[in-house]
Structures are given as C-alpha cells and as structure tokens.
C-alpha cells in the first residue's frame, strides 16, 4: 500500500495503516483537562516544545489530539461529513441547543448560507454608521481623570453596539421604557444571565440542578430564550426592515417564506447565540488590542500615521466610511497580530468517524482532534519571529499568516460566522480610540484563560487626550 504523504488517507473499517505509520507522541494524562483549562497557552507551549506540533492529550476525556501544523489543520477543517463530526462536550452542545450551527450537519450549510447575509456584505456596510455613533459617544464618556478598567469599559460600549445590530432593540438602563414588555429589566440582569449561561458550557457535571454550573446554565438559557421570544414579538408588531439588523433580516425572510429555514426556534436560538458569541469575542479582542498598543508605542505611532492619511482625504474623524475601513490595512494587520499573539480560544472540537493517516501519523477513529491556534501561531515554521509583536509580518516580503497557519476564527464549514463583523467593529473602535486618546500599558496584564481569553476586569490604564499629549 502506498500513500502520498501530502494527502489524507482515509482508512476503511479493518484496513491496516501503511508500514511505518506512527501514533502522535505523548500519552493522555488524567490531569490534562485541569491543566489545559487553568492555562491553555502554557499547556500548548510546553507540549509543543517537548513533542512538536501534534500530540495526544486527555483534554475533555478520552484521547484528544491537539494539532498546530498547517497540513494537519487543513486535514481537521476539511473532514466534515467525510471523516470528522463536531465533538463538543455534551454540556456544551446542550447550551448551544439543537438548532445551533453545530447540530444537524446535514442542514449546516443551508442554515449558515441563510444566516450569512445578516452579518456580511451590504447589511454589514449599513451597520457602519450606527457602530461609529455608539463607539464615538461611548468613548467620549470615558473619564480620563481616573484609571479605566479596560475590559469593563470596552464591554459596555460593545454591548450597546451589538444589541441594536443583532436584535434591533436599544436597551438603555437610564430609560426603563426600553425594557417595557420584556422579561428582563436591565442590562445588568441580561448580562448576568449570559454569564451564568456561559459558565454552564463546560460544566463538569451534567446534572440539571441549581447546585451545578450546568443546571444554572440551562435555566439561564431558558430565560434568555424567553427574552428573545419577547423581542421577536415586539419586532413583529411593527414594519420589519430586512436591512436594519440581523433579527430583522431573519424575520423578513420568515415572512416571505414561512416554510423556509427560519423557523421561530432557529431564529430565537440564533439570536441567543450570536449576541453571546459576538459580545464576548469582540469585547475580548478590542480589550486585547488596546493592551497591545499600550505595550508597543511604535505600532501605535504607525497607526496614527495611517489614520492621518485617511482623515486628510475626508477631513472627518468622527465617522469612518466602509471605504475608509477597507483602506486601514496596517490596522487590520495589527488586529491580526493581536489575534495571533493572544488567540481567544481553540477551534471547535472534531471527532474522527474514521481513522486517517497524514504524513505518516495515524489519527485513530473515535479520538477527538482540535486545531489549536495557540500552537499554530507560535510555530517558527509559520511565523519567523513568533515571540515578537510584529504586524508587518502579514505584509511582503514575509507574507506570513497563510491559510491554515493563522486560524483565529477557525476554518472549514465551522469557521466563525461573525468574523467580518468582528473585524469591522474592532477597526472602528480602534480608529476612534487612536484619534481621541494616548495611553501606555502599565505592565504585563493578567488574563482570564478559559473558555475565552480576555483581560481581567481589574487591569487598568490611564488615558490622556491625544490632542493635548502631542
């Protein structure tokens, strides 16, 4: 039997692997899950140095293979419906719900294609004016006379950006009427429910009880779905503009085709998940970007030069157009470098439905496999100076960060649906911040490590007005 080592060999039941095939190094350990959850970055770095970019672990039980090499990542991302299936923990799958994009692989492509227009293209360009206004207004309320906790301050603005874009409602704690008819009476209550819900994703005990994170998470999920149903009811009482927001797009499609993909259950579940994912990930990304720019003033200086050129063309730093956003190439590279150096999470777990062989390595059937950016992003084969914060690495002559080497938003059929929106919001947020303030990070930050990496709430910076500091 021969095999081209550049191709994935799928083994049928009972088929013997080619001679010389080896298993990935390292044996799963009972403590791997706890070590990984405590600090995924440290866990991945330690094992990469000891075993290379492919190794076995016991993360989340059974045999879980973490991979970081580009060819192995390509194998992971392209295996759906051929030799892999989604394999998140059962507690996580319950939190996502049966109408999430991780369920029903036979309907995944149809559902994702139907949802994509609400977060990309012309609708996304239509959101830009709103994003500009909310970000600018939020930043001008920051009190520079005292230290600012980066993550809480960023999170507040991002929430106010996202709820109108995704749900078509403005939830304002200073205006009780904005919560009229809803089963939730404040942003604080809604965010608390989301935190409880998120905490249940990786609950170690699948017992539906108030005593467990899983049980509390399931209860919060039900309350959040009740909230989404109330929002949908309010939206249907008025004319629906399909271009105004994500929910509006879905409800308009539902009205036009009642028997189509957008059932009430799918719509309410997708609203729940999209607000959760977008809010946590974008807030974390913007906060990490602010931290990194405060660490590297030379990068901030180059970003100011790019901003100055854009502002000269339109003489308006109060609102950035879709065309200007596309021209922010160094800012985009800086955001990418933030995602490379501080990747927010691993990619979705896959389970091997068949044994496969790639480059002489056997990936056995029924094992779990994870394409891990915390490995891929620090490999010198992928990035020549992995320990250096260097946005220029994405430009010629290096042109690093190629497909399957740079994977902050995953890849394959389960690539992040909101990646484009995350980049647009982060660019607009950073652009206003750069034009308004100057700052330095006061020292190395501490991060919440799992399940999403983010700055801890107590990390603070001091801001100065940019105009008065130059």
Protein model, in words:
This protein has one domain (9-469): Orthogonal Bundle (Cytochrome p450), CATH 1.10.630. It contains 18 helices and 13 strands. It has helices spanning 32-38, 40-51, 70-77, 90-96, 105-115, 121-126, 128-140, 150-167, 187-199, 213-236, 246-256, 264-295, 297-314, 322-327, 329-341, 373-376, 419-436, 466-469; strands spanning 9-10, 54-57, 64-67, 84-86, 148-149, 350-352, 356-358, 361-363, 368-371, 437-440, 447-448, 454-455, 460-465. The strands form 4 sheets. Strands 2-3-9-6-4 form a 5-stranded mixed sheet. Strands 1-7-8 form a 3-stranded antiparallel sheet, with helices on one face. The longest helix is centred in the middle third of the chain and has 32 residues, at 264-295. 43% of the residues are buried. The model is unreliable at 1-5 (pLDDT under 50).
